[in-house]
Amino acid sequence: MAIAKAERLMNLALCLLGTRRPLSKRELRESIEAYLEAGSDDSFNRMFERDKDDLRELGLVIETVENLDGEVGYMARRDSNRLPPITLDAEEAAALGLAAKVWQQARLAGAASGALQKLRAAGLPEDVDPYEAHGALEPRIPVHEAAFEPLMLACRDRRPVVFDYRKANAAQPEPRHVEPWALECWRGHWYLAGWDRDRGAERVFRLSRITGKVRSRGARVTAEVPDVVTVRETVASWAGETADRSALIRLRADAGYPLRAKATAVRELGNGWDELEIPYGHGLDAWLVEFGPDAVVVEPAELRADVVDRLRAVSKG
Questions:
Q1: Which among 246, 250, 263, 257 is positioned nearest to 293, based on CA atoms?
Q2: SS3 40
Q3: What's the pTM value of the predicted model, to 2 decimals?
Q4: Which of 24, 145, 250, 270 has the fewest CB neighbours in a 10 Å radius?
Q5: Per DSSP, what are the bridge partners of residue 177?
Q6: Residues 240-259, mean pLDDT to the nearest whole number
Q7: Measured between alpha carbons, how far is 97 from 133 in angstroms, rounded to an integer?
């Protein structure tokens, strides 16, 4: 139904924009197939009036003109519906180019390139190359997870989803029913923040741990969506960016440089081992597992137990 209405609105807009004289209701009905299929004049009139109001709401300027015979006609003059020219200076073009380059290795690369081509056609300076390097660092947002695109669309449309999710300390995935809020990238990993219906609380899911397909559900969302700043703070906390205590980690002398960068204190133990004091927050256990036998948790005991549980889950496949 939504596709049929969109097609009908598009056809009506093209008729009104393409004519050089006002078109009567009769002429418009004869020109658009959906109007011909209307069961009665009353049905057509109601449909046409709704469509005309919808187009005006979308910003199309539709004129109503009465001819000498008293017949009413409609048209949309191109000069009244033409956007002003887009002018971008070199800095603005560079910013757009940088934003598009971020997505060149992701699934949105085609959309980003298409947007820049439209801007070029609309007046982007010819002497400015949006893809030219403007610094020593070149941004990239890698998106390898198949779940990214369906979750991005679900966040945009506010549609609940279902997917199988394997926690780091679990051997098997389990289904999760989620109302998605936003996707955030932290430390090179993508996370989904949303409302977990089964647990009745907000949760954050790492996309690399989603298995199988993401399925959409037609039900309405029930939880209020927080503002983007709150969502980012939630993702940062779950991704281990927010620390409220310290952990003592034993680390091989020639390993774990990312851990060393976060350490607030380092002490040499000898025999090829160092002892590090690291800010401890949610997610540190998952990060420590990545260092395998090169990192050993000394304290707190709960962090050590979490790391052991995750390692056992990995060993079980």
A1: 250
A2: coil
A3: 0.47
A4: 270
A5: 162
A6: 80
A7: 9
